[in-house]
């Protein structure tokens, strides 16, 4: 007959923060992945081009009153 003492406790990952729940760890890893993505350029010509785009309703003048 086996008991629960036969199993060794699961080893914590090397990057685990003490007292962190699995949900908090998953959220931390997800945010780190999002932050690691390349960001679009900020300021300068790119920003002016974004601001100069035609507004979504401008092509349908009959929709405005």
What does this structure look like?
- It is built from 2 helices and no strands.
- The model has no long low-confidence stretch (mean pLDDT 77).
- It is elongated, with a radius of gyration of 26 Å.
- With 65 residues, the protein is mainly alpha-helical.
- The longest helix has 15 residues.
Defining traits:
single chain, 65 residues, mainly alpha, 35% helix, elongated
What is the ordering of alpha helices and beta strands? HH
Tell me the helix content.
25-40%
The tally of beta strands, per DSSP, is: 0
Structural class: mainly alpha
Main pleated sheet:
none
Distance between the termini: 81 Å
Beta fraction of the residues? Answer: under 5%
Q: Counting H and I runs of at least 4 residues, what is the number of helices?
A: 2
| pLDDT averaged residue by residue | 77
Question: Uncertain spans, ≥5 residues at pLDDT below 50?
Answer: none
Shape field: elongated
Using the CA coordinates, give the radius of gyration.
26 Å
Region (Disordered): 1-65
């Amino acid at each position: 007959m086996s008991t629960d003492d036969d199993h060794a406790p699961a080893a914590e990952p090397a990057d685990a923060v003490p007292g962190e729940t699995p949900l908090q760890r998953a959220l931390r890893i997800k945010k780190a992945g999002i932050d690691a993505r390349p960001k679009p350029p900020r300021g300068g010509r790119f920003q002016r081009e974004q601001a100069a785009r035609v507004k979504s309703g401008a092509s349908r003048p009959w929709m405005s009153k």
